[in-house]
């Protein structure tokens, strides 16, 4: 027995909407080389290999594969709400709590689902890690490669960037202060058969690569430092064990600090004095003393390459 037409119409509309959303989430056809935004005319073969390995369920679009993982992790009752969680809020937005109450989820359930539904850090269509990865790992190979140097994903969140390096065989530490995010990062790694090291940071604790004693060839912070109470101490700690020629990948230092960008970071941090550290003389001095600044088009990040130590910092 066929359903009445008035029942079919909403179902068809929903089906069309879901198909349209899936098409928007799918990676688009590769574009020709653009010298204004692309770094490498020969492409990004190692980043592309990681992009494929991050996509767990090949029968699904990349986006639907991530949604499926969220349902695996949270269960259907919570995980099927992930698509709605793509909506983003500033921390001072009074609508956020009403949104969470309406969905019947906690803030950290929302935060994990928002980040994983919204972002694939190796998506070739985003100005993220994809366009930097090949250059960074070629630098690591010059430093001795997988057996010689470590990678720190600082403030790793869901750990997508550190996971990418781990899938490529590098020794990786994923560090974060938030247990819900680290727990999901562990799930993503286990789902792909890799076992990096996890570090649960305490309040005001920044992974000290110098004290750790292992040689680090790469440190990544992706949208983290605006949430840090003491930026100079943090950057000093996380990069102190970076070997000469190693690279600090940062999205929040050495920006072109327009008034509009400063205003965004102040609101995102929720604390003007904390955000203002990002363009302070103190952090600029540390960067100038310790690093060579390398900017690349087509990505949010800047590469800070560690200079040989002079013995005085």
CATH class bucket of the domain at 130-306: Alpha Beta
Task: Name the assembly state.
Answer: single chain
Largest sheet: 7 strands, mixed
CATH superfamily of the domain at 130-306: Vaccinia Virus protein VP39
Name the beta content range. 5-15%
Please state the CA-atom Rg, rounded to the nearest Å. Answer: 21 Å
* Helix proportion range: 40-55%
Low-confidence stretches: 1-33
Q: State the shape.
A: globular
Kindly identify the CATH topology of the domain at 130-306. Rossmann fold
Q: What can you tell me about this protein's structure?
A:
- This protein is of the alpha/beta class and 313 residues long.
- It has a domain at 130-306: 3-Layer(aba) Sandwich (Rossmann fold).
- Helix content is 45%, strand content 13%.
- It has helices at 5-25, 45-54, 62-74, 76-79, 95-103, 107-118, 130-142, 160-167, 179-191, 209-212, 231-239, 259-269, 272-276, 281-290, and strands at residues 150-154, 171-176, 197-200, 216-221, 242-250, 291-295, 302-306.
- A 7-stranded mixed sheet has the order 3-2-1-4-5-7-6.
- Strand 1, helix 8 (160-167) and strand 2 (171-176) form a beta-alpha-beta unit.
- Helix 2 crosses helix 8 (160-167).
- Mean pLDDT is 89; it is low at 1-33.
Describe the structure in brief:
By secondary structure, the chain is of the alpha/beta class.
Key phrases:
313 residues, 45% helix, disordered N terminus, 14 helices, 7 strands, 7-stranded mixed sheet, alpha/beta
Secondary structure blueprint with pairings:
Elements: H1 5-25, H2 45-54, H3 62-74, H4 76-79, H5 95-103, H6 107-118, H7 130-142, E1 150-154, H8 160-167, E2 171-176, H9 179-191, E3 197-200, H10 209-212, E4 216-221, H11 231-239, E5 242-250, H12 259-269, H13 272-276, H14 281-290, E6 291-295, E7 302-306
Parallel strand pairs: 1-2, 1-4, 2-3, 4-5
Antiparallel strand pairs: 5-7, 6-7
